Amino acid sequence: MGPGFDPLAVHKKKEGFQNRNSSFFVTNHTLHMKELVQLYKKTFHTEPTKIEKLKGAGSNRVYYRLFGQSQSVIGVVGESLTENESFIYLAQHFEKQKLNTPILFSVSDDKKRYLQEDLGDTSLFDYIRQGRESGSFSEKELKILEKTIRQLAHFQHKAAENLDFSNCYPQAEFDSRTIFWDLNYFKYNFLKTTGLEIDEPALESD
């Protein structure tokens, strides 16, 4: 099944709380992998040949790439049942609307794990790296940005058709409170980490 974590190799020389915390992390990681393997076997009737843990992406969900003989899939572990149910509903709705989103292959009985289509490692942010860093975007980068913006507009309208907004997480309406959540997330998880001097009163006024 490929390499897993060696509990003895993780912070071996540490003691006290950090050791206990590391052991908890290793136990959770191993449990997640076993549960995803069971879901993979149930879905594809074979075992994955290898599993890789992926970096997180702005949430508490844990991501893995499970490799098979001919393809790989993404395994997701999320402890928030409400959030998972929202994601599952939206993924299935987007597929019905024929929108370009990862296909949801299967969901565990407790809805805490699911397998979805693997679209690779390259994000739009990575794709336009040269332009971001140089300040001058190539024709290729500009075309993909234009295509993305057009797709976002199409997605906004098409996704809303027959959508039950009560299934949206954390709430059905993107109101002022939700906007402030996003702005505070941006402030504390991006701006504060840059080390730049920030005029917080002016920022709040904006």
What is shown here, in short?
By secondary structure, the chain is an alpha+beta fold. Helices cover 49% and strands 13% of the residues.
Question: In this structure, how is the largest beta sheet organized?
Answer: 5 strands, antiparallel
Gyration radius over CA = 20 Å
Describe the strand arrangement of the main beta sheet, using strand numbers. Answer: 1-2-3-5-4
Determine the structural class based on helices, strands and strand pairing.
alpha+beta
The count of strands amounts to: 5
Our measurement of the CA-to-CA distance between the termini, rounded to an integer number of angstroms, reads: 52 Å
Helix-strand pattern? HEEEHEEHHHHH
> Into which percentage range does the β-strand content fall?
5-15%
**What is the approximate shape?**
globular
Low-confidence stretches: 1-18
What is the count of DSSP helices, taking H or I runs of 4+ residues? 7
Features:
disordered N terminus; 206 residues; single chain; 7 helices; 49% helix; alpha+beta; 5-stranded antiparallel sheet
Model description:
The chain is α+β, with helices and mostly antiparallel strands and 206 residues long. Helices cover 49% and strands 13% of the residues. The chain is built from 7 helices and 5 strands, in the order H-E-E-E-H-E-E-H-H-H-H-H. It has helices spanning 17-44, 81-96, 124-127, 129-134, 139-160, 176-194, 200-205, and strands at residues 50-54, 62-67, 72-77, 104-107, 113-117. Strands 1-2-3-5-4 form a 5-stranded antiparallel sheet, sandwiched between helices.
